[in-house]
Specification:
alpha/beta, Aminopeptidase
Length: about 350
């Protein structure tokens, strides 16, 4: 074979191989055009391949969940579930300690009650006559405040520790939430809820000088009576002090509907030769009506009315009463319950009086 024929044969083989390569690339969808220098070879893609649907690749986004340190993950327990152990039994309460040395006893006692009077004055008093009398107390007027509540001995308080002994003297507190002013607030609400207009003076007339208590409260009563002539009932709310010569305190208490309640006593003055009280009958008649209503509603609550030859500022208003709500041996809870009961008694007594005076 001469050189000419060999060149032709070599060219032919090269052309065949090139054709094969181009044919193969033409069957691949989207195959790029091949460029060779300035020459560009275009390969047509068969139409049947263009009709094929190529599924799209799935998209992936980075998870927004917080990654947890493997060491922080709880591994599932392979132990069988069991009932939680019973709680340890509570220790038995220790018996009450002995009263401290030098302490004195507090003894609970239910005093006699009922429609009675303990009369330490020289006057002869007839209960039936007092009950039949309609006191000159214009409680039916409603053109202004009708009732004044005050505390001559405002700092009188109660047996806060609720113990059967005590180590100090008579309990007193300058905090009104802890003394008889708090009881006055309970009474005020009951009367107000019943439709009466009430003024509650929270002045501590016994602080700082206990001996000036009644002088100070006298000024308060006069002030309000002059400011509001509509006031027809004045309630001086105290707590009693029941202590015998040995220092033993007594706790006047009665159960009412299963609840321990401090007993209540009305202290009424009829005056004397020096301190004249001409209208004592009006005051005492109201007190006996309250006493009877208390016996009807809450038997055992009202200790007998105590009458003394004093005035206790009751000469300033025909509807004046002094209320001893419990005693120094009673707990605050017992006194609060007494205030609720007494408030109910007072509302019904005044309501009855309004009807009688029509």
């Amino acid at each position: 074979m001469n050189k000419k024929h060999a060149g032709i044969l070599l060219f032919t083989v090269w052309a065949v191989l090139l054709g094969v390569v181009l044919t193969v690339m033409g069957t691949v969808p989207g195959a790029p055009a091949l460029s060779y220098g300035a020459a560009r070879l275009q390969v047509d893609i068969p139409s049947r391949l263009l009709q094929l649907s190529i599924p799209a690749l799935p998209s992936f986004s980075q998870s927004t969940e917080e990654k947890t340190d493997p060491q922080e993950e709880e591994s599932p327990s392979t132990e069988p579930e069991t009932e939680p152990p019973d709680p340890a039994p509570e220790p038995e309460p220790e018996p009450d300690s002995e009263p401290p040395e030098g302490s004195l006893p507090v003894i609970s006692k239910t005093y006699s009650s009922g429609l009675g009077i303990n009369n330490s004055s020289s006057l002869k008093l007839d209960i039936d006559e007092l009950l039949a009398h309609i006191p000159d107390i214009p409680i039916e007027k409603d053109d202004g405040p009708q009732i004044l509540i005050l505390h001559t001995h405002a700092t009188e308080s109660y047996n806060d520790d609720n113990l059967d002994y005590y180590t100090g003297g008579s309990p007193r507190s300058e905090e009104n939430y802890a003394n008889v002013v708090h009881m006055g607030t309970i009474l005020e609400k009951i009367l107000t809820d019943a439709g009466y207009s009430v003024i509650h003076s929270q002045v501590q007339h016994d602080n700082p000088d206990f001996n000036q208590s009644y002088t100070n409260s006298n000024l308060t009563i006069r002030h309000y009576l002059e400011l509001y002539p509509s006031i027809s009932v004045v309630i001086d709310l105290h707590r009693d002090s029941l202590v015998d010569n040995s220092g033993t305190k007594y706790r006047p208490v009665v159960e009412i509907d299963g609840v321990k309640t401090a007993q209540v006593m009305l202290l009424m003055g009829v005056g004397n030769a020096t301190y004249v009280h001409k209208n004592w009958k009006e005051n005492l008649s109201l007190a006996m009506r309250i006493q009877k209503k208390g016996e009807d509603l809450y038997q055992g609550l009202m200790r007998p009315v105590l009458v003394r030859p004093s005035r206790y500022n009751q000469h300033l208003c025909n509807g004046s009463i002094l209320v001893e709500l419990g005693a120094c041996g009673n707990s605050p809870a017992e006194a609060e319950q007494a205030a609720r009961c007494f408030g109910d008694i007072l509302v019904q007594t005044l309501n009855d009086l309004k009807e009688e005076r029509k």
